[in-house]
Recover the amino acids of this structure.
């Protein structure tokens, strides 16, 4: 069976990234090998980030899921990271609001609950086993919250009305093929792979759970210390993102090819045409972090016992992004009152 090889957390460490303290001569960037991280994937591959950063060398590290990535950022192994909002929230809470800032968006949409064809409603999931990429990641929180809204209890150790098994995405596809799980809440391209390769069907498109079908699947966060010490580098990184997302929007067909080539390089196998086309249609890039959704994401995590309630003022800093947008004569984005603490 064709499959993408798992990308181990902290694997694919490029250009000598280390745990040493960050330097003005380097930017250490993390992201995931998922299509929902198409911005950093293409930004790195096509040189948009390198050109924007100029003389500042870029080192990159690829992870399986956001919680492991946030562990690296909290451990001073990264300066910036593309990550799901739930993982960013967990990092913020664990550091008592000190370690990171959400400074931009990247992707919205691109997450689905896909299940066996015999499952037609939430009630059919009772007694079933579902998978997510990692305990506490954005899709894990979304699944647990959605189940709770339908009266289905879960626990972090796999108990409850529905058993949730956090695991590597490639393992999830294998186990679905083997009949060991009944579905999964996954980011792209894994949701589409489950449908096209595994014969699963979509039960929930997460876009339909949010106003105007807009929710962030990937944000750009930076270390608070790095942002304080090197705001110019952060602005240049954001400038690289803006150039990348502009290119993706203007060159969809080529962007799909480039993303697929990079996914193959990162994980060992490319997507089929059917998979890349389906997955691409489930998401879109955005520079806006959609800050108005951050509090909602936090409420969901708190309600399912994966995060403690906290004051989120200060988690978002749209200053660098809005400065770059203003330079390009584009409208500013809103921090939804989650900017600097008063």
């Amino acid at each position: 069976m064709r499959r993408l090889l798992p990308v181990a957390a902290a694997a694919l460490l490029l250009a000598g990234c280390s745990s040493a303290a960050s330097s003005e001569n380097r930017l250490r960037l993390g992201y995931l090998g998922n299509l929902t991280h198409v911005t950093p994937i293409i930004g790195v591959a096509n040189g948009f980030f390198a050109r924007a950063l100029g003389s500042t060398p870029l080192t990159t590290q690829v992870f399986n899921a956001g919680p492991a990535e946030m562990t690296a950022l909290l451990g001073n192994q990264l300066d910036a990271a593309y990550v799901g909002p739930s993982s960013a929230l967990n990092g913020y809470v664990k550091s008592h609001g000190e370690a990171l800032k959400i400074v931009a968006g990247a992707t919205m949409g691109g997450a689905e609950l896909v299940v066996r064809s015999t499952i037609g409603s939430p009630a059919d999931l009772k007694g079933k086993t579902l998978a997510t990429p990692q305990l506490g990641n954005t899709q894990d929180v979304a699944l647990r919250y959605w189940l709770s809204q339908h009266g289905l209890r879960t626990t972090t150790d796999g108990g409850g009305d529905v058993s949730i098994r956090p695991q590597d995405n490639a393992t999830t596809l294998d186990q679905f093929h083997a009949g060991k799980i009944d579905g999964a809440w996954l980011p792209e391209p894994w949701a589409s792979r489950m449908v096209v390769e595994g014969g699963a069907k979509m039960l929930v498109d997460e876009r339909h759970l949010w106003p105007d079908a807009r929710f962030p699947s990937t944000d750009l966060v930076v270390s608070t210390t790095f942002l304080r010490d090197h705001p110019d580098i952060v602005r240049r990184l954001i400038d690289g993102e803006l150039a990348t997302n502009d290119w993706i929007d203007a060159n969809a067909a080529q962007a799909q090819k480039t993303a697929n080539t990079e996914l193959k390089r990162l994980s060992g196998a490319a997507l089929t045409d059917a998979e890349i086309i389906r997955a691409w249609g489930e998401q879109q890039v955005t520079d806006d972090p959609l800050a108005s959704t951050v509090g909602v994401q936090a409420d969901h995590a708190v309600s399912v016992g994966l995060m403690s309630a906290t004051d989120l003022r200060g988690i978002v800093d749209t200053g660098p992004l809005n400065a770059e947008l203003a330079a390009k004569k584009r409208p500013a984005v809103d921090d939804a009152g989650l900017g600097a603490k008063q």
Remarks:
- The CA atoms of residues 129 and 248 lie 36 Å apart.
- Residues 1-23 have pLDDT under 50 and may be disordered.
- The two ends are 56 Å apart (CA to CA).
